[in-house]
Write a structure and sequence with these properties.
Elements lengths: L10 H15 L8 H15 L4 H9 L4 H11 L11 H15 L7 E7 L5 H13 L9 E8 L2 H9 L1 E3 H4 L4 H7 E6 L2 E6 L1 H4 L2 E5 L12 E6 L8 H13 L1 E9 L13 E4 L2 E3 L4
Parallel strand pairs: 1-2, 1-7, 2-6, 7-8
Antiparallel strand pairs: 3-5, 4-5, 8-10, 9-10
Helix pairs in contact: 1-3, 2-4, 5-6
The structure holds S-adenosylmethionine (SAM).
S-adenosylmethionine binds next to loops.
C-alpha cells in the first residue's frame, strides 16, 4: 500500500489560506470547510513536493506564483451544477424572456448572453438549447448570437469546453432533446454524450474572476449568475451585483440562484419574480 505524507493544517495556516482565498476570489470558507481545505490542498502540496501548508502559503503570496493561485482556485471552488438546474429560469425565458430580448429596442439581433460562474458548462449549454428551441432550431447564422461562459476555475472550464458528459449527467434531459442536441458514444464500459456543434458553436468559454475588473466592450441582454454569490460575503455580493448591472443593456435580465437573494443589497434592479430581475429601461 502506498503511504502518503500527512500534512498538519494549523489554525494559523487555515486563517492565512482562507483570508487569501477571500481576498482573491470573494469565496468565504466557513470553519466547517477546514477538512475540505485540508484534503484538497494536501493533494496539491504532494504534487508540488512542498513540505508544509506554511511553506505553501509563502509560495502563494510570492509575486511570481500567479499560476499557483489558479491551481488554488481549482482546488477549493465548489462546482456543483446540472443541466436545466432551477428550470423556472429556462421556462421564463421560453415564455417571456426571449421574446422581450428579441423585440428589445436594440433589435439588431445582436444577442449577448452570459453565464457567470458556469462551472462545467451545463448552464450555458442549457441556455443554448433553450434558445435554439425557442428559435425553432432555425439556423441562427443570420443573427449575431453569442453566449459567454466564464468561471474562475480552469479545471471546470476544460470540462465545459470539451462538452462531453457521462450518461448520468444527461439523464434528466428528455430523450428527444438528448438525441437532437448530443451525439452518444461509447468509451470503455460507459456511454457518453457530446454536445453537438450547433449548440457548442454558440458558446465561448473563458476564465474570469468576478472579483476583478471586467474586460467587456459590449453589454449583455441576459446574465445568469446563479449559485455563485452564495459563497461571497455581503460587501462582495453588493459590489458584484452592481458591476453586473452595469454590464447589462437597458431591459436586460439578471437571474440568481434560488438560495440567493438581493434583499439587503443596495442595487438598482427592477424585481420581476423571485430570483429574476431586470435593468430598468430608460
Ligand atoms: C456551485 S457552481 C454554480 C454553477 C452554475 N451557475 C449553477 O448554478 O449550476 C459555482 C461556480 O462559481 C465559480 N466561482 C466561484 N467564485 C468565483 C469567482 N470569484 N469568479 C468566477 N467564478 C467563481 C466556481 O468555480 C463554481 O464553478
Amino acid at each position: 500500500m502506498i503511504k502518503f505524507k500527512q500534512y498538519v493544517l494549523t489554525d494559523e495556516d487555515f486563517e492565512n489560506l482562507r483570508s487569501l482565498i477571500y481576498k482573491t476570489c470573494g469565496i468565504h470558507l466557513s470553519d466547517a470547510k477546514r477538512d475540505l481545505m485540508h484534503a484538497r490542498l494536501s493533494r496539491r502540496l504532494r504534487q508540488l513536493g512542498i513540505e508544509s501548508f506554511r511553506e505553501y502559503y509563502q509560495f502563494l503570496i510570492r509575486g511570481d506564483s500567479k499560476a499557483e493561485m489558479v491551481q488554488l482556485m481549482n482546488a477549493i471552488s465548489t462546482n456543483l451544477t446540472s443541466f436545466f438546474r432551477e428550470p423556472v429560469h429556462f421556462e421564463y425565458l421560453t415564455k417571456e424572456g426571449f421574446s422581450e430580448i428579441f423585440a428589445g429596442p436594440q433589435s439588431s439581433l445582436r444577442i449577448r448572453l452570459w453565464s457567470a460562474g458556469c462551472s462545467t458548462g451545463e448552464e450555458p449549454y442549457s441556455l443554448a438549447i433553450t434558445l435554439l428551441k425557442y428559435l425553432h432550431l432555425r439556423n441562427p447564422a443570420g443573427m449575431d448570437i453569442r453566449i459567454l461562459g466564464t468561471d474562475i476555475s480552469t479545471r471546470v472550464l476544460k470540462e465545459a469546453t470539451s462538452g462531453v458528459y457521462s450518461e448520468d449527467r444527461v439523464a434528466k434531459i428528455p430523450e428527444p432533446d438528448r438525441r437532437q442536441f448530443f451525439d452518444k458514444f461509447k468509451r470503455g464500459e460507459g456511454h457518453y454524450y457530446r454536445v453537438k456543434n450547433s449548440v457548442k458553436n454558440l458558446i465561448t468559454f473563458r476564465r474570469l474572476n468576478l472579483m476583478e475588473p471586467f474586460p467587456f466592450k459590449e453589454v449583455f441582454d441576459l446574465i445568469l449568475c446563479r449559485n455563485v454569490m452564495i459563497y461571497f460575503g455581503r460587501a462582495r455580493q453588493e459590489s458584484l451585483v452592481n458591476k453586473l448591472y452595469d454590464c447589462l443593456k437597458p431591459g436586460g435580465f439578471f437571474m440568481i440562484g434560488h438560495s440567493e437573494s438581493l434583499t439587503g443589497i443596495n442595487q438598482p434592479f427592477e424585481y420581476i419574480m423571485p430570483t429574476i430581475y431586470r435593468k430598468k429601461i430608460g
